[in-house]
Amino acid sequence: MFSRWADRPLTSLLARLPSQCEVCRAWPSRRICDACVTRFAPPAARCGSCALPVPEGVARCSECMRDPPPLDACFAACAYAWPWPDCIAQFKFHGEAGWAGPLATLMRSVPWVEPALEQCDGVLPMPMAPARLRERGFNQALELARRLAPAKTDAALLLRTRETPAQSGLARAERLRNLRGAFAVEPLRAHELQGRRVVLVDDVMTSGTSLFSAAAALRLAGAAHVTALVFARTDPPH
């Protein structure tokens, strides 16, 4: 069904070599040391539908109870707070694709993520508009997906049909209107989604409207179960 990506032995070997922690500068270490992971990406109770923080023991936030998004599950490895914005900026805007490995490792460590990846039929990176892709040189969501599940990653099934204006400052309803029709399933392959389980991958989830819009397109094509998996989630101010 889904396209296959070969493993990258050299990338895997380089990822295991000792280096300096990018956060605390400990040496020798991995790119993010265990102490920094423990300090800056602690386990947290999050809404199962949108990954916003919730009190311990609460499965869904009040917003998702009132207006459920088109996701069956949603996981985030950490809050979008220091030091992660700097790390993600290096990854996305400075061409440092090597960040994909350590970030994907943290995403895999979230409870229930491993079963979600094992049970799904395909892992779909959030697509980028062609102009943005040419400008950046690579799709960070695709790099994460390849590290999470290389044999299941498919970058050609979910498409971005157009670039959209900035979402900042817009209410939720306006964001959804802004993204209407921005995502679509490859028409000649839509039948492959019938009754399938898929995992949507992205680096950062802000309001959730992009992921929700992409998930809605997958639902429309017949996907039976859609999980979203992101590295960082923007939490509301306290």
TrEMBL record:
SUPFAM superfamilies: PRTase-like. InterPro entries: ComF/GntX_DNA_util-trans, PRTase-like, PRTase_dom. It holds the Pfam family Pribosyltran. Residues 161-232 form the Phosphoribosyltransferase domain. Belongs to the ComF/GntX family. This is ComF family protein. It comes from Variovorax beijingensis.
